[in-house]
């Protein structure tokens, strides 16, 4: 019997889904969780696919750990819990191409990529969907740069770490991007709040249909009465 799970690296916890799959197999759930946490401890902060192969007769089991999904590796690299909900407009990080190469090397055997360059492009595509910049550029622009050979040297040499100077510049650039995004989001929130306040004020000021006029206020004449009064008006005679 094979049980497939995706767990938090080094931090698998008992829960209904886990108990439902492992409980009926007659093995110690607590021990399984401890063993899974031990073998996935190197992936803390990352979702990790695991397979637990259980022998129904002996109740023994083996645990196989697979490489985390690409999106999880990118988020771990940036210390993110989730990607951008609007990747075209809001960016959540800025990675150097060298770190993309490192992730591509880690995942290459699991990707449908004929070579490292193709694997790098697949990782770049995931960065686009998460809202992650690469080398200060949108991921779509980096894909074009890869196709045109801009990064051929880095990929051929399998360079996986940027220089400290480059890493610092990328951080500074993204700090400016983040500040600009926060300013724009604040302005949008304030504009929305002002619009809602104006609507609420207008609704409060306008009397509801059928509401009697306030004391001392002459009721407005009905449209029919106004028309009849106009007919009865006669022009003054000239002397």
Protein model, in words:
The protein has 239 residues and is mainly alpha-helical. It folds into two domains: 2-65, Ribosomal protein L11/L12, N-terminal domain (Ribosomal protein L11, N-terminal domain, 2-Layer Sandwich), CATH 3.30.1550.10; 70-184, Ribosomal protein L11/L12, C-terminal domain (Arc Repressor Mutant, subunit A), CATH 1.10.10.250. Helices cover 50% and strands 11% of the residues. It is built from nine helices and five strands, in the order βααββαβααβαααα. It has helices spanning 16-22, 29-39, 70-78, 97-107, 116-130, 139-147, 152-156, 164-205, 223-232; strands spanning 2-8, 47-54, 61-65, 93-95, 132-134. The strands form two sheets. It has a three-stranded antiparallel beta sheet, covered by helices on one side. The chain has a two-stranded parallel sheet with strand order 4-5. Helix 3 (70-78) packs antiparallel against helix 4, helix 4 (97-107) crosses helix 5 (116-130) and helix 5 runs antiparallel to helix 6 (139-147). The longest helix has 42 residues, at 164-205. It is flat and about 85 Å long. It starts with a strand and ends in a 7-residue tail after the last helix.
């Amino acid at each position: 019997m094979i049980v497939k799970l995706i767990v938090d690296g080094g931090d698998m916890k008992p829960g209904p889904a886990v108990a439902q799959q492992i409980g009926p197999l007659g093995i110690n759930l607590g021990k399984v969780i401890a063993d899974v946490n031990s073998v996935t401890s190197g992936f803390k902060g990352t979702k990790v696919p695991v397979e637990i192969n259980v022998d129904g007769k002996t109740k023994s089991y083996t645990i196989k750990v697979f490489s985390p999904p690409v999106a999880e590796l990118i988020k771990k690299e940036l210390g993110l819990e989730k990607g951008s909900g609007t990747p075209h407009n809001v960016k959540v990080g800025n990675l150097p191409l060298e770190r993309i190469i490192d992730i591509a090397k880690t995942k290459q055997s699991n990707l449908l990529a004929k070579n490292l360059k193709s694997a790098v492009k697949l990782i770049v595509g995931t960065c686009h969907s998460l809202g992650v910049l690469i080398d200060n550029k949108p991921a779509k622009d980096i894909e074009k740069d890869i196709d045109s050979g801009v990064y051929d040297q880095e990929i051929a040499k399998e360079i996986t770490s940027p220089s400290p100077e480059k890493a610092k510049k990328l951080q500074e650039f993204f700090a400016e991007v983040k500040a600009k995004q926060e300013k724009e989001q604040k302005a949008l929130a304030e504009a929305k709040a002002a619009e809602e306040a104006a609507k609420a004020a207008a609704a409060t000021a306008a009397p509801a249909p059928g509401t009697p006029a306030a004391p001392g206020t002459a009721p407005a004449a009905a449209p029919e009465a106004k028309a009849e009064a106009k007919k009865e008006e006669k022009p003054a005679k000239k002397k």
